[in-house]
Amino acid sequence: MTGTRAPLPAQTSTAAADATTPSARRPSPLHRVLEAVGVTNVSLLIALALVILVIGSQNADFFRGSNLIVIGTAVAISGLLAVVQTVVIIAGGLDISVGSVAGLASVASAMIFTATGSTAVLGLAGAVLIGLLCGLVNGAIIVYGRVNPVIATLATLAAFKGIAQLISNGRAQGYTGSDPIFIFLARGSILGIPTLIWVLLLVAGLLHVMLKYTDIGRKIYALGGNDAAARLAGININRYILAIFALAGMVAGIAGVLITARTGSGQPISGSEGLELEAITAAALGGTALKGGKGSIISTLLAVLLLGVLINGMTLLGVNPFWQNVAKGTLLVVAVVIQQLRSGERRVGIPQ
Predict the structure, then answer these.
(1) How would you classify residue 320: left for phi > 0, otherwise alpha for psi between -120 and 50, otherwise beta?
(2) Where is the composition biased (Low complexity) (predicted)?
(3) Which fold has domain 63-307?
């Protein structure tokens, strides 16, 4: 009769393996930093540092405090539209009309200001209300007309621009350059930081908190990630679409007020034309997925700053201003291509 064999120490070997696993899998300090900051943000920071080094090495005036303030104030208006565009895109939409809404709000703020005996508060409130109504029109067309957001806002881009030109006869309206509130918005500062930048940071901060720390933000991500699943989860998609486009209109109305403050009059086109391209470019460059469900306000702000530094640098270096639009278009294409490569999806026209 043979003796009973002792059981193999499987548990011992497994325990030993488990004991070594945590140390083997423990992420490196660099990996932890990348996870905390985000790969997209790190990439943007590296690109920003390189652009600053190149421009600064060619023109020492770039690092002057006055020039840094110029960069900040220059990107404030486009930054406002970019951060709210990020929210719209995360939800699976796109608002091409924000520039036209800003122009219409600019004209409205100046005309109301003049008509009410130079009452700035009414001009500001009127501009935001006009923006809100424009956003609701966009949302209603999309929800009740069942129109694709791109087509809907492409149509209203032309319509809102036309309305601004009609009520202003295509000319600048009013004069707000002597009003203390408009002067404070345009040239004032708090703690040495221009008011325009504070407005951008305030709006961006509120949107960041909404997206990252509230149930509303989680539902917006869910809506853009999978609208069918969001509907099954009980999310009122139509209500959210209306609210998101209304929000975009309100922020565009604020941008219109800032245009009026900076120029001293209501501008139907000048100051607002092309802002929609800048907003979409910054959002895409910041890693916001154009199909929805992914994006970050902080990343968009970094992209806005990168664009502002690049345009400012091209101006300081005497580059033909027409190349600025070429640079913006190129960056948008590059951002979209990078998104496609990261997604791993099949590219149109390329067999697998």
Answers:
(1) beta
(2) 9-24
(3) ABC transporter involved in vitamin B12 uptake, BtuC (1.10.3470)
Q: Indicate the SS3 state at residue 15.
A: helix
Look up the pTM and report it: 0.85
Domain boundaries of the chain, sorted by first residue: 63-307
Q: How far apart are CA 68 and CA 194, in angstroms?
A: 11
Residue 224 CA to residue 249 CA, distance in Å, equals 19
In whole angstroms, give the CA distance from residue 313 to residue 50.
12
Cβ atoms of 252 and 84 closer than 8 Å: yes
Average pLDDT over residues 83-99: 95
**What residue type is 35 in one-letter code?**
E
Residue 263 · residue 270 · CB < 8 Å: yes
Conformational region of residue 15, where left means phi above 0, alpha means psi within -120 to 50, and beta covers everything else: alpha
Q: What is d(CA 2, CA 11) in angstroms, rounded to the nearest whole number?
A: 25
* Amino acid identity at 112: I
Residue 344 has pLDDT above 80, yes or no: no
Which of 18-27, 33-42, 270-279, 324-333 bottoms out in mean pLDDT, i.e. has the lowest?
A: 18-27
Closest CA to 259 of 274, 245, 269, 249: 269
The answer to whether 268 and 243 have CB atoms below 8 angstroms apart is no
In which band, very low, low, confident or very high, does the pLDDT at 222 lie, cut at 50, 70 and 90? very high
Instruction: Among 131-135, 262-266, 325-329, name the one with the lowest average pLDDT.
Output: 325-329
User: Do 97 and 138 meet the contact criterion of CB atoms below 8 Å apart?
Assistant: yes
